[in-house]
Amino acid sequence: MELKGKVAIVSGAAEGFGKAFAEVLLLKGCKVCLCDINAPLGQKTTGIFEQRFGKENAIFVTCDVTVAEQFADVFKKTKLEYGKIDIVVNNAGVANEKEWRQTIMVNLIGSMQGTELAVKYMSKENGGHGGVIINIGSATGFEPVFFMPAYAASKHGLIGFTRSWSVSKRNEANGLRFACLCPAFAETNLIRFTEGTTLSNSTAEALLKEIGVVKMSQVVESFMELLADESNNGAVLKLTLDDGAEYMYRDAR
Ligand SMILES: NC(=O)C1=CN([C@@H]2O[C@H](COP(=O)(O)OP(=O)(O)OC[C@H]3O[C@@H](n4cnc5c(N)ncnc54)[C@H](O)[C@@H]3O)[C@@H](O)[C@H]2O)C=CC1
Ligand SMILES: CCCCC/C=C\C=C\C(=O)C/C=C\C/C=C\CCCC(=O)O
What we know:
There is one protein chain. By secondary structure, this protein is of the alpha/beta class. The protein has one domain: Rossmann fold (3-Layer(aba) Sandwich). Helices cover 44% and strands 18% of the residues. Strands 3-2-1-4-5-6-7-8 form an eight-stranded mixed β-sheet, sandwiched between helices. Strand 1, helix 1 and strand 2 form a beta-alpha-beta unit. It starts with 6 loop residues before the first strand and ends with a strand. The model has no long low-confidence stretch (mean pLDDT 97). The chain binds 1,4-dihydronicotinamide adenine dinucleotide and the ligand CCCCC/C=C\C=C\C(=O)C/C=C\C/C=C\CCCC(=O)O. 1,4-dihydronicotinamide adenine dinucleotide binds next to helix 1 and helix 4.
């Protein structure tokens, strides 16, 4: 997929994966709308990108992805600013078992909302040019995870949701494709929030040591692989330190 001149929306882009995805898209010549619930950090990140890549290539919109009107506003503003939308990355996520309803709301419902909006704006039948939706799942979406049941459920759901969209013939005709990136532990602040799990700090440290922590560069590389290959519809790519990137599903089925 030629990325130069494409327009992307990345949710949860103030820090972590979202910031790295926005950065690589800008590096490849895309225009990017970064959105995040954390307005001060989102504005700071976007300001840095504006300086590096040009003020005209990055915008920030404050958005809680669980609030439908706010997420819709992100799409409206991006279309208004850049005239089209080609890539949507549903990345915003939390890992909090005590606030498990919120975990489902952000990780699953928020990403579903972002996908629905992407389909609305990018479908050829609505005047769009087609495009790609990348949902950020997790390696917890394939197996039981005793210390994060709600989080794991949100990611199991997101994988099923993404695959279900990918098998629709109507979406194929609309030029849309759908893929899911599923990393194991990776080096962001998310994995430092152990109060959000049922683990003690020492058990969490031991687990991180045992499973290992994937580097951000590996996550970005896998993200780019899903984006670049236009035949990737329905692909679910798992990324672990031990096995690297492996397709759990390659095609829409
Ligand atoms: N770090 C890890 O080990 C892994 C993370 N993931 C997933 O990757 C995605 C990104 O996570 P990280 O970068 O690690 O976390 P992070 O905590 O570094 O970044 C998450 C971003 O999402 C934003 N956010 C949270 N709730 C939001 C909401 N309601 N609306 C809009 N923005 C919101 C935060 O403000 C933050 O900027 C998440 O979906 C997470 O579940 C998946 C596998 C592994
Ligand atoms: C121990 C740290 C606790 C805090 C964790 C917070 C967030 C984690 C988010 C993830 O998405 C982590 C993803 C995967 C880790 C769990 C199981 C990995 C199984 C890997 C495998 O299949 O080999």
